[in-house]
Amino acid sequence: MRTPFAPGGRHRRQEQLLVECSRQLSAVAEELRRANLIQHHRLLVEQLDRAIDDPTLAAAMSTLRGLTEVKRRQMLFANREYGVLLLTYRVDGCTWDELLSRLRIMCHNDLFAEYWSATLEHRKTLPEESLEAKVGQAVDAILEDLRDDRDEWWVVGLESPPPPPQP
């Protein structure tokens, strides 16, 4: 009686194992993607740190024109801090709402607002559907809100754009 049913049970078990193996492989691939993002960002931050410390490297790394040595370093640092926030979101270190909250705080800094304005042309080259373009639109909205009422920058629950789909 058991013999006719055994092969079907074995086949089902093999399918279950294959599905579980596929799920685990996908998880490993996602973890590798995150590790690669972190490694890439670490290399970029090391370059930015060197450029911030050395004016000759800062001039080679910056695409902004007409800046004093001090201002160029400040802009590179603002870029570095923005990149850290973006990476934190990309590797699921914060939610979309937490990212916007941290960006809202950062946007209150006049130097960051200056950096954001100076790099407008850079953001125009981003693909519209990219995460950076979506974050850029959110920062633009935050800065616009700040221009309207600087005393309410900290208000939680301001209408924010929905999160972009994760890659």
UniProtKB/TrEMBL annotation:
<protein>
    <submittedName>
        <fullName>DUF6082 family protein</fullName>
    </submittedName>
</protein>
<dbReference type="InterPro" id="IPR045728">
    <property type="entry name" value="DUF6082"/>
</dbReference>
<dbReference type="Pfam" id="PF19560">
    <property type="entry name" value="DUF6082"/>
</dbReference>
